[in-house]
From TrEMBL:
It is an enzyme of class 6 (ligase). Catalyzes the attachment of alanine to tRNA(Ala) in a two-step reaction: alanine is first activated by ATP to form Ala-AMP and then transferred to the acceptor end of tRNA(Ala). Also edits incorrectly charged tRNA(Ala) via its editing domain. Binds 1 zinc ion per subunit. One of its GO terms (molecular function) is aminoacyl-tRNA deacylase activity. This is Alanine--tRNA ligase. The keyword Iron-sulfur does not apply. Monomer. Interacts with ANKRD16; the interaction is direct. It comes from the Eukaryota. One of its GO terms (cellular component) is mitochondrion. Its EC number is 6.1.1.7.
Amino acid sequence: DTTELDAARRMFIEFFKERHGHRVVPSAPVRPRGDPSLLFVNAGMNQFKPIFLGTVDPRSEMARYRRVVNSQKCVRAGGKHNDLDDVGRDVYHHTFFEMLGNWSFGDYFKEEACAMAWQLLTGSYGIPRDRLYVSYFGGDRTLGLEADEETREIWLNIGVQPNRILPFGMKDNFWEMGETGPCGPCTEIHYDHVGGRDVAHLVNSDSSDVVEIWNLVFMQYSREADGSLRALHQHSVDTGMGLERLVAVLQGKRSNYDTDLFTPLFSAIQQVFPHAVNRKIACSKVADKSKVDMAYRVIADHIRALTVCIADGVYPGMSGAQLVLRHILRRAVRFSTEVLKSTPGSLSKLVPTVVHILVSRPTSLRDRHLSIMDIINDNEAQFLSSLKQGRRVIDRTLQNMNGSTVFPGSVAWSLHCHLGFPLDLLRLMVEEKGVAMDTEALDRLALENKKVRAQTQASEHDSCVDLDVKVLPELQGLGITYTNDLPKYQYSLG
Ligand code: ATP
Ligand code: MG
Ligand code: MG
Ligand code: MG
């Protein structure tokens, strides 16, 4: 029930506020303000970037922050931290999740940060010590970065067994916000969901038996545009713990989807989608050939992301964060129509359940669920109509291919640009017909697209530019023309 969730969240906030003098700061919206280096807020520290970098306006309230605690809405789809492809495949990566965090801006450093984290987990939350492992930065010789032996010592002094303190390299234990920005070595706490054996080898593997729950970053550098590391004016602490993973630990569940944050959504999916069967095995190792389990996870995850993003003013669209959101929506629609055989309008019916689960979150959610549903329905209808049109174009192309078994890249590219088909979807649709995609031609067009975009200074995340001069003649050769009545493209099959 949701009160238990609130309790887990509240315990974190209260611990740092009441016992360790932190100031509570509200979550920022998921769309970062004034930071073009980010598509979405990907960590609790984003809103504090100017403090780390020393660029904060000295007259602002933020300039006085020393110890801060918060729970931040995060989205990791696109940009440096992009988990979209993992979502649904595993049971602990989401596109939208909540990150609990505490910060020290030039105040306490490694020793206190580790001690507090350990005290909270093993004391307040009562997590058994013999289920926890910690990692620290093992250094990087080529970059001239030393191993963080200090942190290893700190964990030993706290009483962690030496075989549970593990060094890792840049990928896992040197945290960076984006291509540029604050960064530094980190120490992480991992939870063993099984117990009773040594699983040090599973830390930072892809196993769902041992999952990273909390990251404590020691901010010491800024990654500059030229790739170099610049030492920051002061040492800071930046931590982040995923609420969904914490709740899974506290509720003794192997999968985030088996916790109170998701089970009401699974029930709603079962009710809303007429042919769905509730497999109830969000964490099953049983083969999921029909992808029903995966569909449950993808839909439950994506509807949360859609609801929160739209509430924060990011609508599905054609570039940047909006394009990413459109991709999320289309992925959800595909799983709901193709796997769960839904009828149009089903997806949006899940929105009230999302709002109910996240009810203690900002009011923008509670007040706006009807308009959020409308936006989802409109976009779903648009995609379904594109799918229909796309299928007809694909069929017509197949008829006119004169025995070739390679699907022309020009047609695929056109559908991608004009109807917004994700390329991976097109490939699947074509392969289902027993034909291979001309990926070479597609790669060529993508490269060209990149060049044109660079010339016009369009952003990396803009949807593709028109390469009509290239693809039109080929399409006509296949008996396909289209009219470009922006914003709508209409294909006609001659
Ligand atoms: P992982 O290695 O599991 O991908 P990460 O190292 O990328 O996680 P951090 O950047 O260290 O994650 O973020 C801090 C914490 O936020 C993690 O320890 C985890 O609890 C949580 N977290 C990160 N990514 C996700 C996600 N996609 N979904 C849910 N929780 C996440
Ligand atoms: Mg990650
Ligand atoms: Mg990690
Ligand atoms: Mg991490």
